[in-house]
Protein 1
Amino acid sequence: MSKNGPARQQYEHSLTDDFWRGIKRCRRASRRTLHLSDSFEVAAANSDGGAIDYDRSPSAGAFMVERRIRMAKFPHTKSFDTFDFAAQPSLNKALVLELARSEWIEQRRNVIALGPSGTGKTHAALALGLAACQKNHSVAFTTAAALVHDLMEARDERRLRSLQKHLASVKLLILDELGYVPFTAVGGELLFEVLSQRYERGSTLITSNLPFDEWTSVFGSERLTGALLDRLTHHVHILEMNGESFRLASSRKRQKAKGDYNMT
Ligand code: ADP
Ligand code: MG
């Protein structure tokens, strides 16, 4: 043993101790991070009115919700706070408020909002999407036409699989404005594939100005539309929004306020 033997051994020993202490510190920190997101999940799952209990992990909760909202790509932020239920008497308010609790997403059910233009379908879809983000669900918002365009583009660029994988993995897919633009045969089939892949795996919310019996005109094929409706409506909540256009009613009110009675 050298003259410096014991001192050196002690030095090496303390280096090893430091190393293990460092590792333990890292493990404790990562466990803390995991607990933070665990407690957020619990807080989100336990909350009952759409609001998250941020008290337990305020910054993590707010950060996750903001991230969910950013990833959802909503064109605007709308909530039920600004939705006038009295203006849309055909809409089942109790059902909408129940849906705003987002339990239907945990149950992998679908929602289809039907009604003419201007009746608040997109507003309701955005508000349900926002509520889902607040419960920490992954959401993707798109219009039916944009999605079909993206699918065709992805197919041409040989990245269809990865787009399909992403679309199959989100907890809630919102497909706005089905019915305004008819699809090509390939477009209809690609959309059908996405919706089939989500069947009983995730929730889909569709808004349409067309009643179900006219959906064939969008997909072009009766067989495909039948198979799609069969899957979509297996576990579904239908929101009927058959009232007057909110835009039209608002402009009529404005005209009346100005004393112009030309509009009927
Ligand atoms: P749709 O998608 O059925 O065509 P939108 O949701 O785009 O209709 O509604 C058109 C506009 O009217 C939007 O600015 C929306 O916020 C508003 N709007 C529609 N219905 C209501 C409502 N019941 N209460 C408040 N605003 C509404
Ligand atoms: Mg709309």
Protein 2
Amino acid sequence: MKTVYSDDHRLHAAKKELVDGTLMPAHERPQRADIILARVREVGLGEILAPEDFGVAPLARVHDGRYLAFLESAWDMWKETGREWDALPLVWPVRGLRAIEPEDIDGKLSYFSFDAGAPITAGTWPAVRASANVALTAARLVKDGERVAFGLCRPPGHHAAADYCGGYCFLNNAAIAAQWLRDQGAQRISVLDIDYHHGNGTQSIFYERADVQFLSLHGDPRQEYPYFLGYADEIGAGRGEGYNVNYPMEWGTAYDAWGQALKDACHEVASYAPDAVVVSLGVDTFEKDPISQFKLKSPDYLDIGKTMAGLGLPTVILMEGGYAVDEIGINAVNVLTGFDD
Ligand code: SP5
Ligand code: ZN
């Protein structure tokens, strides 16, 4: 299988993250992609390609224009106020407050985010552009006839909605790839999200659409981030009713139950009969992940790849989360080798 990778991910390196009420070194760090790439090389997975530049048009098919303008200008606006460290929001328009875009950069950061988990740095915009181009290039490989391709995206994307960032995510790479495949003539796309966290951004983007099915296996929102989306009764709305499928699972879930949910999700995908599948691949379901509570083991990832390959559909696999950096290469690439075998 071919891998698409760009060194530009390095341009985004947040220094700190707010965890457990304290600022700690960010979990979502450049080393994650380096280790996955090293493992791709080590197992001889296949050719490693640089992304092509698709421009902003495919981003604007998914994201709000004002949000893209904000992402592009946020660092300069923040820096103009004399601050040289990562930009973070502090206030959100929750119940009873008014969601009107402020002029001030601190207000804009709040307006265009849902948590303090997506710090903006000097290189964030070029890095997230490169990550989306990685996803789009992987999608193009599959559109042009590859059975499967791996987009080694970093920063990840599935928490980003049409007009807000959060959870280490800025541009929704999976949604951008799915929409691009639709725009290239695919009739139906399934987005299968197996990151530990619910793909709230992707769900919200496609919630009222029948042409993109969204399925997510994740920590139960009663217990787990992002808390405010991901319940099983979220089945889609309007024309999208029946095309959103959530599998919330409780803390401590191991592969027996998780693998059953994956099989069920694959049945749903098969019934939908999409032209292609976009996989949001997170390996933060791993037992040693520092911020997660599932119990998957390294060999389980081989079986995940094999199960998804069993669909027999063209598949674009895009990297999302996974923070046990020592094993992130083994786990992510196990999915890919399991798929290829
Ligand atoms: C792409 C992705 O995986 N984003 C995840 C963002 C998670 N951000 C919030 C994590 C909250 C972690 N709380 C765990 C406390 C451990 N002591
Ligand atoms: Zn995650």
